[in-house]
């Protein structure tokens, strides 16, 4: 029987509405500082959404040469920047520590190059197909984050992309974990990226009635709070270097934590509403836990999906109660989307970074704006203030439109 390899995280990179690096993002998270502000990307006068979690003063020139930039949609640019940061953080030299053929890229996105799509459609309307940019196709398609990251890094191993709505980033990490476990790669740069703050991206969520119409950015996103009225859209990217434990030890790498459990299942119920009672999420958490050989009360912290929509927060609370049983009221749980907004395909990746930093630093980020808890959401959602606590095991949940339920479990490394 082939021995399954252990998989650790040795590097992390991010560009988020809260900061243009992991360090800046984490400092804001621990201080409970939101990245949500007025929506400035386009004129939103006629839109019900007035707020968004936009990147701020992000300078691409450190990561991508100017002559290559116009060939990438914003979502691919963010992915490249986060991935370069992650590989740099891991102090990993491709070709020296790991051969290019043994390092892969696995990147998720929910929507892909929607900004480029809208621009191309406008060009088509104005001047026919001859008016289109020659790279109109390759800026739009969802695999371009993975493709551009692999080109930027010179990573020639597994190269693929996950498109699973809001679970995309989490699944990219989980599937990379499986590939390294099986010995198909020594390391994979995995994560998620999104840049859908456009008239169509935001307008579609407005039409669905899923987006907050609160015009005060500071309080617009309020997971588990009685006054919540929908999600706030965010953008950005998170990237993690997943590496076999053997490879990490061989090069004496710093290790943030180990990934020890992963499961992804479908509701087979409805395209936007979670299954009643969060039935699919319960199964995902149980399967992920089963793999770890731990008990449910070994979990020290849960990073919830927590979107600030009426349905998600209620069903997720029910799922956590069913999964954790009497332990549900004793484990700290938080929704970092209260600060990042909903980063869609990037959410699961950035939340995995928060989960690992909770282990690495012994700090649990808060759920901000939780002032008037929904009586149906009565667990310990770490309201408004970060909490110091020794954290060894973290569960991170990601749920996506279409009925996708994903659970990842991380642990402090013990050799």
Topology record:
Layout: E1 7-15, H1 22-30, E2 37-38, E3 51-52, H2 66-69, H3 74-89, E4 103-108, H4 114-127, H5 136-140, H6 144-153, E5 159-162, H7 168-181, E6 187-194, H8 199-208, E7 236-244, H9 245-250, E8 257-266, H10 279-292, E9 301-303, H11 310-324, E10 333-334, H12 337-340, H13 347-361, E11 363-364, E12 387-388, E13 393-400, E14 404-411
Parallel strand pairs: 4-5, 4-6, 9-10, 9-13
Antiparallel strand pairs: 1-7, 1-8, 2-3, 6-7, 8-14, 11-12, 13-14
Pathway: Lipid metabolism; fatty acid biosynthesis
Active site: 166 (for beta-ketoacyl synthase activity)
Pfam families: ketoacyl-synt (PF00109), Ketoacyl-synt_C (PF02801)
Specify the number of helices: 13
Q: What is the CATH superfamily label of the largest domain? A: Thiolase/Chalcone synthase
Number of strands: 14
Residue windows where pLDDT falls under 50 for at least 5 positions? none
Helix content: 25-40%
- The chain-level mean pLDDT equals 96
Task: Tell me the name of the CATH class of the largest domain.
Answer: Alpha Beta
Note the overall shape: globular
Largest sheet: 10 strands, mixed
Bin the strand percentage. 15-25%
